[in-house]
Amino acid sequence: MGTDSKETQPINEEVRNLVAEARSASQESLVLLVYHREGVDALPLEPNGSVIIGREAPSDCVIDDATLSRQHARFTRGGGATVEVEDLGSRNGTVVGGKTISKAELRVGSECLLGGVVVALHARGGVNDKEKRIERTRKSSAASAEAFVESGAMKDILAQLERVANSNIPVLLQGETGTGKEVLARALHDRGRRRRARLVCLNCAAIPTHLVETTLFGNERGAFTGADSSRRGAFEDAHDGTLLLDEIGELSLSAQAALLRVIETNKVMRVGSTREIPVDVRIVAATHRDLESMVQQQQFRADLLYRLNGISLIVPPLRARREEIRPLARHFFRRANQAHGRELRRVDERALRLLEAYPWPGNVRELRNAIERAVVIANSDEVTAEDLPERIQAIRNTSITYDPSPSSLNAKDIKARMVGLEGRMMEEALKAARGNQTEAAKRLEMPLRTFVRKLKALGLKPRGDE
């Protein structure tokens, strides 16, 4: 089930090595994988064809992400295996190779950043009819969430959500990035009396600072430069429904104050307006940060925290509920198989055992992306261990294995081994990145803040080549 500051993590460098092998341009089917909050879009690119990605129509691929402009960027393929990306005057820019560009060339395995959305160029042989349209894979619906819940902790969480579903009490979900907090928010929404209205999901970390208030509360025409029309905010969109404020710990103190006022008065005032609009919204907040510590450090308002944590639930990381890895992996495999027009038979046993042994610093989101990537690049009729990212394959070179039998190890032993394995992987990533923590975190698909925090907790020091 289940982005620190970025909603979606980019694909690792090993993809470039795997997908760029020995296919001629005339045989290649190029596909853009667009990673965003609701899953992954697959956009096939025909020779001499193009697609536009943006937040609103007439973009060919419309993604509801506040960091995107209405028409953000155009991707155009010539007759070969390269694609030109052109920024269409976006507000937050298009980044390739760490640089903001107006135009750039992408090769197979390249990736770019549109606001907070990652786009990667892949290749595979043969285009079938299923790929003639844009396909979207979405996260599990609330109705199917229980199908993958095997751990006692997650069953307890769902039971608590069931008990409070019909109330208006705010819910605070805490846990590492990618653990499935949004799926739990949807489960709460779909079980309650508000299910006929909207669940609006807002990633506070992905909203540019100058757009926070207009995103939350809306704006009137002419309220600021570029406001050519009136716009409803997230609270109005979620009226009679539920508003998920993901990564709420990233909001500035001024934004927290404005949010608190709306929660206390049940009224919003659009930017540039003097009229208050009544709203009836249930708030679900989610964060990977320790809000109580932030209160002590005067980085988060104590009065807002008291209003948000009517019921507080801790979502365990995936490594603490390994019995859910296989059903989740098979679920993501089936959806990716359908979305990308593949007809693969299964994920083989060796691959599944590697998935079970890996510590999953990126949790369920990392598992989903690993399976998605494996389905795209698989060259046989099944996903094998060789199709998994190199960081997962590296588990085979360690002395640590995972025995799913309950008698093999106690919980304390398993936790100690997983921590040790994660530490060695972080050390290897740092060495490969010559001590660059940002690069090392990218190699592990781990948020930089999480990487730095774990580095300190494990007593590791960034070093270059030895």
Provide structural commentary.
This protein is of the alpha+beta class and 466 residues long. It is built from 16 helices and 21 strands. The protein has helices spanning 14-19, 142-145, 152-164, 181-191, 212-217, 234-237, 253-265, 291-296, 302-308, 325-339, 349-357, 363-377, 390-393, 411-432, 437-443, 448-458, and strands at 28-36, 39-45, 50-54, 61-62, 73-77, 83-87, 94-96, 99-101, 103-106, 111-114, 117-125, 135-138, 171-174, 199-203, 218-219, 231-232, 242-246, 267-269, 276-278, 282-287, 311-314. Strands 8-7-10-11-1-2-12 form a 7-stranded antiparallel sheet. Strands 4-3-5-6-9 form a 5-stranded mixed sheet, with no helix packed on it. It has a 5-stranded parallel sheet with strand order 14-17-20-13-21. The two termini are 39 Å apart. 44% of the residues are buried.
Q: Summarize this, please?
A:
The chain has 466 residues and is of the alpha+beta class. It has helices spanning 14-19, 142-145, 152-164, 181-191, 212-217, 234-237, 253-265, 291-296, 302-308, 325-339, 349-357, 363-377, 390-393, 411-432, 437-443, 448-458, and strands at residues 28-36, 39-45, 50-54, 61-62, 73-77, 83-87, 94-96, 99-101, 103-106, 111-114, 117-125, 135-138, 171-174, 199-203, 218-219, 231-232, 242-246, 267-269, 276-278, 282-287, 311-314.
